[in-house]
Amino acid sequence: MKKIKIKRFLKSRIFYICFAIIGSILLLFIIIAVLDMFLKQLVFNFENFKEVISDPYVIRTILLTFYSSFFATVIALLLGIPLAYVIAKYDFIGKSIIESIINLPLMIPHSVAGLLIYSIFMKEGLIGAPLKELGIVFEDNIWGIIVALLFVSMPIFLNSAIDGFKAVNPHLERVAYSLGAKNRHIFFKIMLPLSKRTIFTGSVMCWARGISEFGAVILIAYYPMIAPVFVYERFNSEGIEASAPIALFLIIICFFIFLLIYFLTKKSRQRK
Amino acid sequence: MGLKSYVSLKNVSCDFEEFLIQDINLNIKKEEFFVILGPTGAGKTLLLELIAGFHKIDEGNLYINGENMKNIRPNKRNIGFVYQDYSLFPHMNVRENIGFGLKVQKKDKSMIERKIKKIMKQFEISHLENREPKTLSGGEQQMVALARALIIKPNILLLDEPFSALDPITKKEAMKVVKEIHQDHNLTTIKVTHNQDEAMRGDRISLMMNGRIIDTGIPQEIFTSPKDEKVANFVGIENIIEGEIMQYNDGYVKVKTKNFNVNCLSKFKSGKVTLFIRPEYIVLSKQLFKSSIRNNIQSEVEEMLIISKELIQVTLRNGLKAYITFNAREDLDLNIGDKLYASFKATSVALKR
Prior knowledge:
The complex is a heterodimer of chains A (272) and B (353). Chain A has 2 domains: 1-44, no CATH class; 56-271, MetI-like (MetI-like fold, Orthogonal Bundle), CATH 1.10.3720.10. In chain A, 83% of the residues lie in helices and 0% in strands. Chain A is built from 13 helices and no strands. Chain A starts with a helix and ends with a helix. By secondary structure, chain B is an alpha+beta fold. Chain B is built from 9 helices and 20 strands. Chain B has a 6-stranded mixed sheet with strand order 6-7-8-3-9-10, sandwiched between helices. A 5-stranded antiparallel sheet of chain B has the order 13-12-11-14-20. In chain B, strand 16 and strand 17 (311-316) form a beta hairpin. The A-B interface holds A 169, 171-172, 174-182, 185, 189-190, 193-194 and B 49, 52-54, 73-75, 77, 79-81, 83, 85, 87, 89-91, 100-101, 104-105, 148-149, 152.
């Protein structure tokens, strides 16, 4: 009797079970890679882990990564909201071209992105040269890191903000107009408050994307080192033992950022 | 109600997203309660949105109180708009929703508070003051949406299917309130609906189908004497009968149809005609009574179909269709095959060429 029940249960779930098995291969791929490092560093080599992550230079590179990505996110936020609003709300000639341009940094190799950034922000570059006169240098400087991170992570923010604005019921905007609201009222009192959650989620994702950037940064600002560059440098000079603890530390932080994003988006989904 | 047209559309056409409206001509009088009736997808909401100025008119002109609205933005038109979904601002409470219009118009703060209190009292929603829209019932949301639209003292009130999401009892109450508001505020109200019962309450009705106005008139005209078969079908005239005038006597005719003769009024003296008879106007009886009713046609029950909670549609062998209530069916003890008389007055028949 019990056997028949199990058989029936398996039969009814066969599709689900097959897909779960196939799907778990990808999941295992990530889990094994992370778990391997987790065990090696936190269980078998905890002293080394503690030592490396309490190194002031390591802390500095991680902090530099976080705040340069934060600055890039703030710039993306301030300049990106108006752009996202225009794209979300208005139809104009060439809109699809602009949307493609926005997503270009996501599609090109990051070393290529780095090259583009270097080319215009180097001391002799189109933007780098005049700003050098004002005392702002991008090569091997935090400004270089920020522009590189901004370039590669802004599409994530922009796409999120565009979706946020588009998701607001157009009736609300129209009713507000009929009640006498001007464009600025619509933006500040209706559109922005109703998209703030998507904008915030987009900002966190943009920030997280900045933290993980490597390729675009090394060409313009190898120094001061951000964490991904530092991991690479340590691996080349001192091997896996020296670079793995920093990598793991970054993984832990990124994991918590994504947990945060998950709960934020879950909340916004529930609100809808 | 003024005689001059207040809202006037001249050859208006517009193509917006999946909706298209073409060559609309309408003249709505001041303080009129005007209804645009049509099936879903007819372009009714788009027409309302064009009046409010939410979209650009591709062709033609819209005049309000004689002024061309071409360059007048929606925030300068002084029009109240209530959508089917009420569109309350979800991040504001009831008080903030109602006060929004006055606030963006930079009115004096104490005056805004006073007006909000007054209108909430008038709509009996004072107790909802601090509630968020999502916590309100459909009826409450509608009252808030109406209060929000009316606090700015609009000249025109546009209502987009305002009652379609309400339960029957709330709907009845809301319809009464809207009619009162219309009268008390001397408003010109334009309501769109797909519901014929709701449309009956308008001063005049325009029938809209596939982006075009196909007929305009007082409810009585539209519902009993439609322009053509298409209109008749939409307004629920089940009996559309072809016939030929046999006798004419001073505005009174006898029309021969395939299965029976019909006595009715006519401006035509001869020729082929189409007769329209609403199924509600046909009385069924098992015996013939002497009365003023000019048409008493004997037939048999062919089919009985329940069409609503209250009504049964009875189809007779001669093709006539009548609506009766469940109670009437019980009293008559009506069954398929029963012989009976279908009676209707000469004035219940609309005759068209």
